[in-house]
Write a structure and sequence with these properties.
single chain; about 250 residues; alpha/beta; Arc Repressor Mutant, subunit A; Rossmann fold; seven-stranded parallel β-sheet; elongated
Length: about 250
């Protein structure tokens, strides 16, 4: 088997299972563990995976601070935000997570009918300052500055008092077997609690977040009602998510 073929199979396994164990791969390929470990080292150097003891994990997306991320507004995120905003109906209570993708939803929300937006992000609330028909509920708590969202017991207590019709969740990574994830344990707990309170949860996913994993798990992919993704994504990358029963909107 050629090295390039072997590496391609390793990447397929990583996308499918969320991890690669060198010993098991060596057995499947009838090769030495040293050969597989060398492949994994080379692939890690190319940025294709993250080496860990005994094998490899998907690459975690970089986590630049919020002020850096908010200056980057891609056309893809604007499309995703517009598609999400179009889902909102009159009189609904929607919950917007923090983040640059959900900021695009806030900017695209309908102005022809009334609804309520709950958020634990002061920056998202500020986006709605001049919105003519949106009532805003701002959840408080300890400010996690990296993502500019409130976290902790105070936040969870306030979220327990509401039942959103739709939660637009923000994540740093999504993987079919490892689930939806982010970089902070407390932030993940708050996101998970919002999802448990909401009638349905949808997530906006740009290409770099797909088939990746961050340190703190939020919930399984199968708990999602839907994903909104760029239309240019390869269908092969989406098939594992469709198999979990998630409705996928491509825009």
């Amino acid at each position: 088997m050629l090295t390039s073929q072997r590496k391609s199979l390793i990447l397929d396994m990583l996308r499918r299972e969320g991890q690669v164990v060198a010993k098991r791969v060596a057995g499947e390929f009838s090769l030495s563990e040293d050969t597989i470990r060398r492949d994994l080292r080379e692939m890690a150097a190319e940025g294709l995976l993250k080496r860990v003891h005994g094998g490899a994990l998907p690459v975690s997306p970089d986590l630049p601070d919020f002020s850096t991320r908010r200056t980057i507004s891609s056309a893809a995120k604007q499309r995703l935000g517009a598609a999400a905003a179009a889902m909102v109906r009159p009189g609904q209570l929607i919950f917007l997570d923090g983040g640059t993708s959900t900021a695009e939803i806030a900017r695209a929300l309908p102005r022809s009918f009334a609804f309520t937006v709950a958020t634990h992000s002061p920056t998202i609330a500020a986006e709605l300052e001049h919105h003519p028909t949106a009532e805003v509920i701002l959840i408080g708590g300890r400010l996690y500055k990296h993502s500019m969202v409130a976290v902790g017991a105070a936040s969870i207590g306030q979220i327990s008092l509401i039942r959103p019709d739709i939660f637009f969740l923000g994540v740093t990574a999504i993987h079919p077997s490892r689930g939806l994830s982010t970089g902070d344990l407390e932030e993940a707990a708050v996101k998970r609690h919002i999802a448990s309170q909401a009638a349905e949860t949808h997530v906006l996913v740009t290409a770099e977040k797909l088939d990746a994993s961050s340190p703190c798990t939020i919930m399984p992919v199968s708990d999602l009602a839907g994903m909104i993704v760029p239309a240019e994504l390869d269908e092969q990358r989406l098939s594992a998510y469709r198999a979990l029963g998630v409705n996928i909107v491509e825009v």
